[in-house]
Backbone:
């Protein structure tokens, strides 16, 4: 896709002192986004509220007397509502990551950077921090005047209030983050008593500092320079991707004019060159210069442009979601939407749907009982009473359900094979237990060397929970 960029003259880093020292980069210019209202602003705030209610509220939910979502790294158990996962269930995490990647490809191919504009944590927390900033320092013009004014008691008070609120939100975010890895109700008391462990303090303060720095200071620089998605998004776009676009044919030539002026008679397009689309852009770009990698698809420029069109009495949609083919071929909304369902989107959608069904289907039918059999390698085989041959094993039971179970162990595969250990064992809910198991065979049974056998483990209180694990029985030569 052809990328149109505004050419910015190279600025000298310092006054030329005759040594010819110049910078090839433009000095950073602070961006003061103007507040905007409209449909997409409402959708963006709906996404902010939805994601933050989930993030801040999920750790406080209880399920069967425990935290509903908890990644207990110390106990190596992950709780997701009624599902208990162990490190051996890493395949589900891998599947979830594949689903997330395919979702990103799918939505990007359909409608560009929807993730960036509405749900990315950088966007969400930048919105929250800017909302606080506007409440404390005022809208765009007031903030620019405040920053340009000399330091005073009033300015210091506003800045201190803003940063205090920012830090409070950042610390709450860091606290909630570690609440996903340690019981959050216990963490609350530990924080108040300053008794957190060193790693807990580190991660809470690190995440808080990252939130404060990224959302309060770096903002658009994270999206423009640090986020890799901005760099490879072009590979997922094509001319039928719905993106935020400026209708050049309708808008040009741009120029200011009185409201009563007939733009056709004056030889002007619909764009009145008010630059409000630039003033509301969180990354500071001019959407009228065409598609740029800095555009995060937040659609703030659409909202403000529609407001201007309403005031001028012009048709809305000078800046709108559209496709390049739609603009070039003058397709209507339904024509563009019809072209969105193209082969690559159908392939992404099909793969995504299949993976989601397989992933959650396998979780739904997953057997919560797992058994691992480990031979005792210190003594491969020994002769015991009456000439019986005995092998020792360690059976590791893992109960991933929310109820305790009584397990019966049997062994089969050789004539006369039997357990010389208890057959029934109890395993607590969401826990594991390792037990030694002695297995014997009569003399003369089996061949010297390795003989295949099988352990059968079933829950006495729930016969549907059963496992069969292969093992080898060693007979002395």
Residues:
């Amino acid at each position: 896709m052809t990328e149109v960029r505004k050419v910015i003259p190279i600025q000298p880093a310092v006054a030329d002192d005759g040594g010819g020292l110049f910078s090839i980069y433009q000095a950073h210019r602070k961006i003061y986004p103007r507040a905007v209202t409209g449909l997409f602003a409402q959708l963006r705030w709906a996404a902010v509220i939805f994601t933050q209610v989930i993030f801040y509220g999920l750790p406080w939910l209880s399920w069967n007397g425990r935290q509903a979502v908890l990644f207990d790294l110390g106990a190596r158990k992950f709780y997701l509502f009624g599902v208990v996962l162990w490190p051996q269930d890493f395949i589900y995490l891998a599947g979830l990551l594949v689903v997330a990647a395919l979702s990103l490809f799918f939505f990007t191919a359909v409608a560009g950077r929807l993730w960036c504009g509405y749900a990315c944590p950088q966007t969400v927390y930048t919105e929250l921090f800017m909302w606080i900033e506007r409440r404390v320092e005022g809208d765009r013009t007031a903030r620019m005047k405040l920053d340009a004014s000399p330091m005073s008691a009033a300015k210091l008070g506003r800045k201190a209030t803003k940063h205090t609120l920012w830090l409070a939100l950042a610390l709450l975010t860091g606290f909630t983050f570690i609440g996903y890895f340690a019981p959050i109700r216990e963490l609350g008391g530990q924080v108040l008593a300053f008794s957190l462990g060193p790693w807990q303090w580190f991660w809470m303060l690190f995440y808080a500092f990252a939130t404060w720095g990224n959302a309060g200071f770096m903002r658009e620089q994270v999206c423009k320079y640090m986020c890799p998605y901005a760099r490879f998004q072009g590979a997922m776009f094509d001319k039928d991707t719905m993106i935020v676009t400026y209708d050049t044919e309708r808008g040009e030539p741009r120029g200011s004019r009185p409201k009563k002026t007939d733009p056709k008679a004056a030889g002007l397009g619909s764009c009145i060159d008010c630059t409000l689309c630039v003033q509301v852009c969180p990354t500071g770009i001019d959407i009228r210069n065409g598609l740029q990698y800095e555009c995060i698809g937040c659609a703030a420029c659409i909202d403000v442009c529609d407001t201007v069109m309403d005031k001028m009495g012009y048709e809305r949609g000078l800046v709108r979601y559209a496709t390049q083919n739609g603009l070039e071929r003058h397709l209507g909304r339904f024509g563009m939407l019809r072209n969105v369902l193209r082969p690559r989107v159908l392939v992404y959608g099909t793969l995504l749907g299949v993976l989601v069904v397989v992933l959650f289907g396998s979780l739904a039918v997953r057997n919560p009982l797992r058994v691992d059999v480990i031979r005792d390698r210190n003594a491969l085989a020994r002769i015991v009473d009456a000439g019986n041959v005995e092998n020792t094993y360690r059976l590791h039971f893992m109960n991933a359900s929310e109820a305790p179970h009584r397990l019966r162990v049997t062994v089969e595969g050789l004539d006369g094979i039997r357990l010389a250990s208890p057959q029934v064992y109890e395993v607590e809910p969401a826990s594991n237990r390792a037990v030694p198991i002695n297995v014997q065979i009569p003399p003369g049974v089996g061949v010297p060397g390795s003989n295949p056998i099988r352990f059968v483990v079933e829950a006495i209180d729930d016969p549907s929970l059963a496992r069969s694990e292969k093992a080898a029985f060693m007979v002395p030569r």
Notes: DSSP finds 16 helices and 16 strands in the chain. The mean pLDDT is 87. The longest strand covers residues 462-475.
